[in-house]
Amino acid sequence: MLSGFMNLFRACFGPRSDRYVRSSSDSGGRQDGLLWYKDTGQHFSGDFSMAVVQANNLLEDQSQLESGCLSTHDSAGPFGTFVGVYDGHGGPETSRFINQHLFQHLKRFSSDAQTMSADVIRKAFQATEEGFTSVVANQWPMKPQIAAVGSCCLVGVVCNGTLYIANLGDSRAVLGRIVKATGDAVAVQLSEEHNANLAPVRQELQSLHPEDSQIVVLKHNVWRVKGIIQVSRSIGDVYLKKAEYNREPLYAKFRVREPFKKPFLSADPSISTHQLEPHDQFIIFASDGLWEHLSNQEAVNIVQNNPRNGIARRLVKAALQEAAKKREMRYSDLKKIERGVRRHFHDDITVIVVFLDSNLAGKSGSSVKGFSNNLSVKGGGVHLPSNTLAPCAMPA
């Protein structure tokens, strides 16, 4: 079965090319107003589906799925699938930077270690944070507001039968696991969230800053770090990590009045490791725009009870229907609202559903040594080797 899948993969994607194109129509992704979607595709150990809907004037969500070799040495491995969901705030610059650099850092550290591990992932996050901090330092004289741009960062890596989940902020990864006795799918949240509205997060912040009675402030019934931001961990948001960027000409609304020596926010991800089992069927990766309107179990039920093809788009639609219902309006009317204004009704929403075919998920990368054909898909547009567009278009 594995060899058959590899033959299919090779036939579709052909030899690896270093030239990539960005085209939603030519390579399988489609656009429908503010919605971009890729209904179906194949990754290293199963199928996947992606969808992104825009609400902000500029899309602040970015996402990617990379499948194949997870190191810079294509013939050496390890092999598997990388999923990233990056929910930006304050602008799109940080999420775009993560989309361009995080996976490349992971491949480099994986090559150095000759394996995949939580330590490899943590180093990739750290290098990405340091890279964006350098961008802020370089642009500060001309564009000081970039110091107030940041992004949540949710990553999943499936490699050698192991699932790694790393997270900063409040995006979420939820596993759909089959209960043998009933055949139902139960939702298992895999990611730890960092949002000041959660009591354990407030307690963590207060223990890290015992001298600061205003480390978390309740404003308009929402808990915020320093009364400014909800998430306690992120990439970017340098103005709350380095005091030299918390001053004029940064807008006054972002500035903390008192001087500080310790960063208020962290870029250290929560990382968990899971050995995949045959009853682990799929994982839903999504920005908080989805979870604002759907519970974990509601989302898992939708995936379990509907065809795989187009399932990410179906989840987005379900969230938008709930958003419309809360405003006592029709879904069809909500879809007519333009970006920017749409943000008053829902956030940017990114969803990636990754199915885990049990006969492939547990296979070791060593069984396909030499396999070097990589699939790269990014939300808002699809990246595929430029010489394989025609045969690789997936049905939508």
From TrEMBL:
Residues 47-356 form the PPM-type phosphatase domain. It catalyses: O-phospho-L-threonyl-[protein] + H2O = L-threonyl-[protein] + phosphate; O-phospho-L-seryl-[protein] + H2O = L-seryl-[protein] + phosphate. Keywords: Hydrolase, Magnesium, Manganese, Metal-binding, Protein phosphatase. GO terms for molecular function: metal ion binding; protein serine/threonine phosphatase activity. One of its GO terms (cellular component) is membrane. It holds the Pfam family PP2C. The keyword Manganese applies. Its cofactor is Mg(2+); Mn(2+). The keyword Transcription regulation does not apply. Its EC number is 3.1.3.16. It is an enzyme of class 3 (hydrolase). Belongs to the PP2C family. This is protein-serine/threonine phosphatase. It comes from Cuscuta campestris.
